[in-house]
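input
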Amino acid sequence: MDTPFENTYDLTLEQLENLDKAEDMMLRNNLGAAEKLLLEMLSEDEECIPVLSNLGHLYGRHLSEFETAIEYYNRVLELEPDNAWARDARRRYLRYVE
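output
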């Protein structure tokens, strides 16, 4: 399947579909289902940066669990130190816990 973007992380079709589902669930405020799906995906690939990033977004933006969001962004940055998006998001949530 061709994607309209570069599949930088070589995600499978199933991973791409599940990420779309999780993002849609977050938009529809179905946060428990989004969390469950993302955590299931993470259990299958503990170093999947898009999943870690989405969990950081879910916990920070939607659930206001800032420390948990920071933990997920830290994991992204351990795997990909130059990830500016994760670094900026982590900085945003650090203000709430320091």
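quick obs: The chain has one domain: 13-97.
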